[in-house]
Amino acid sequence: MTDTPMIAVRSVNKWFGAFHVLKDVDLVVQRGQKVVVCGPSGSGKSTLIRCINRLEEHDEGEIIVDGIRLDESLEHIAAIRREVGMVFQQFNLFPHLTVLENCVLAQVRARKTPRADAEARAMQYLARVRIPEQASKYPGQLSGGQQQRVAIARSLCMEPKVMLFDEPTSALDPEMIKEVLDVMTDLAQSGMTMICVTHEMGFARKVADLMVFMDHGRVVESSPPAEFFAAPRSDRTRQFLDQILSH
Amino acid sequence: MTKAGQGSSQSLSPRETRARRARRARALDAALFAACLAALAWIVLRGAQAMGYNWQWFRVPRYLWRIVDGEVILGALIKGLIVTLQISALAMLCAAAFGLVTALLRLSRSPVGRALAYGYIEIARNTPLLLQVLVFYFIIAYILGISRFWAGVLSLAFYEGAFAAEIIRGGVLAVRKGQWEAARSLGLGPFDTYRDVILPQALPLMLPPMAGVLVNLVKHSSIVSAIAIFDLTTEGRTIVADTFMAFEIWLTVAGIYLVITLSLSLAVAGLERRYGFARGH
Ligand SMILES: Nc1ncnc2c1ncn2[C@@H]1O[C@H](COP(=O)(O)OP(=O)(O)O)[C@@H](O)[C@H]1O
Ligand SMILES: [Mg+2]
Fold first, then answer.
1. Tell me, what's the pLDDT at B275?
2. Does the beta carbon of A126 sit less than 6 angstroms from any atom of ligand 1?
3. Distance between CA atoms of B266 and B262, rounded to whole angstroms?
4. Which of B22, B70, B78, B205 has most Cβ atoms within 10 angstroms of its Cβ?
5. Is B38 within the bounds of a domain?
6. Per-residue model confidence as pLDDT tens digits over A21-51
7. What is the A8 CA–ligand 1 centroid distance (Å)?
8. A94 and B182: CB-CB below 8 Å?
């Protein structure tokens, strides 16, 4: 069991109508591995990770998470969503609930955790993302960086085995990016399996075990960061790196 | 307030402008209404004068209430008003329930559910309300063995439920897609997602148009007088038949309807203001 990969994506194809958005995508993520996915806008990065927790459906190929095959079975989908947490570019906190309630809701409803335990766990993870003092505020009263850290805590409260991040810092003001990346770095060092779509190459160098570069729906390059940054195999990757590292 | 205010006023601006537009529409309504009322009063007075009408306002209060030996005895008009309010309140609850179920069916993935909801909405909105009342009374109430009171309540709820459904659907669709995605990624099922995430956010958007439904219900409830329910309108007609005080009684009845509908509108405007500003929105 423990030597099966955490996530296996094999020959996945997906279309939006006539538009071929994922083309024969393969991606294997071992337990505890950190994968950073980068690539130009529209290359299919979000679609790929959204397929992993079934926010999108893939049309061909197979996706297996922790030994569970992602198919039509609602139990499989539910089981996979239990294991996979997701953090969105736009945070997607529940604006009508306090920070604490944001973290408690799904524990109580989906896990049937007793409220007192759920609140204790919520406070524990809010402390871990360094904002326990904001627990009684509403998301609209927090800065973007604080909101994103709450979103991370909310996901962690479900104790997932994998965390997916979809450009978690792209909607943030520059001065708030670091506080979110620091939390993500901590999480990476704690041994969490992670797939991060991000263009923060400093973060990528620090935590990634595997770099994936996507373009036009294909995985163009997939290699360890040392190799990826020093000697990219494809021209397309080199161009892309030049572009984003030059500013 | 600065940061929070900015962030949320940005994300909620469609709602704010909608609320403001609704408020302005209500203010305009009120002004138009006052002007029309003045014109109407003038016409009525002129007309009454021309036909030598014998005003007998002093006979009206007994149809509202009397005080005998320190005890309040309700007159026919107030009794009728109580029936009207009962019918409207019960019909509102039923209309909200019909509307919720219909809206969820229309938003569901099931083609049969969507078709059913669509069919109901089109039938309810495109046939005369009076006909619906009669069908409920003579056919449905007969089959199900329900009283004329409940036939009245259910027919009004049937009619207004279609409007409530569209309001609820609009409110649900106005909640951002990311809220669904966050809920699903946390493992919440559709029921929990609606109850805890979507509807609480859609509710403030639905409140002003729902108040309109309630006001319509109060007004349209007068149609149940067609099936001899002793509501405000029926009582008014009975008194006019007995006393020939057409002007005084009908004007009083109209005044009572107005007091009810206008205070409902004002109450909702206040509620909306308070609800809207709570939580730093
Ligand atoms: N729901 C959708 N319907 C149709 N096209 C979509 C949808 N979502 C994404 N796309 C398109 O698919 C392509 C890949 O999108 P996405 O996965 O979001 O790319 P990335 O995250 O790499 O920027 C884009 O061209 C986008 O316009
Ligand atoms: Mg994207």
1. 67
2. no
3. 6
4. B205
5. no
6. 999 999 999 999 999 999 999 999 999 999 9
7. 22
8. yes
What region, left, alpha or beta, does residue A172 occupy, with left being phi > 0 and alpha being psi -120 to 50 degrees?
A: beta
Ligand 1 and A44: CB distance under 6 A: yes
Region of B28 on the Ramachandran plot (φ > 0 left; ψ -120 to 50 alpha; else beta): alpha
In a mutational test of the B interface, the residue from A141, A148, A150, A176 whose CB has the highest number of chain B CBs within 10 Å is A141
Of the candidates A175, A230, A171, A224, the one whose C-alpha atom is nearest the C-alpha of residue A199 is: A171
Q: How far is CA B263 from CA A139, A216, B61, B79, B214, in A?
A: 35, 60, 22, 19, 12
Q: Within 13 Å and on the Cβ side, how many CA atoms surround A99?
A: 29
pLDDT value for B15:
67
**Minimal Cβ distance to A94: which of B11, B179, B189:** B179
Identify from B185, B191, B198, B281 which residue to disrupt to test chain A contact, counting A C-beta atoms within 10 A and taking the largest count. B185
The strands making up A210-215's β-sheet, listed across from edge to edge, are: A84-87, A162-166, A193-197, A34-38, A210-215, A218-223
CB-CB neighbors (< 8 A) of A140 in chain B: 4, 7-8, 279-281
Share of chain A above pLDDT 70, in %: 99
**Nearest Cα residue to atom 27 of ligand 1:** A42
Residue B86 inside a domain? The answer is: yes
Provide ipTM, 2 decimals.
0.94
In a domain, B31, yes or no: no
Is residue B63 domain-resident? no
- The CATH number that applies at residue B94 is 1.10.3720.10
Q: Is A41 in the pocket of ligand 1 (CB under 6 A)?
A: yes
Would you state the pLDDT for residue A2?
59
Q: Cα(B60)–Cα(B246) distance, rounded to whole angstroms?
A: 11
Q: How is residue A247 annotated by DSSP?
A: -
**Low-confidence residues in chain B, pLDDT < 70:** 1-15, 275-281
The structure tokens listed for B250 are 């009908």
| Residues making up chain B, counted from first to last | 281
Work out the minimum CA distance from A120 to partner chain B, whole angstroms: 18
Q: Phi-psi bin for A24: left (phi > 0), alpha (psi -120 to 50), beta?
A: left
For ligand 1, whether the C-beta of A47 sits within 6 Å is yes
* Ligand 2 centroid from CA A198, angstroms: 9
Domains in chain B, number:
1
Cα dihedral B82, B87, B90, B91, rounded to 10, equals: -150
Tens digit of each residue's pLDDT (9 = 90 or more) over B193-236? 999 999 999 998 888 889 889 999 999 999 988 888 889 999 99
Q: What's the rounded Cα separation, in Å, for the pair B134 and B120?
A: 17
Distance of alpha carbon B36 from the chain centroid: 22
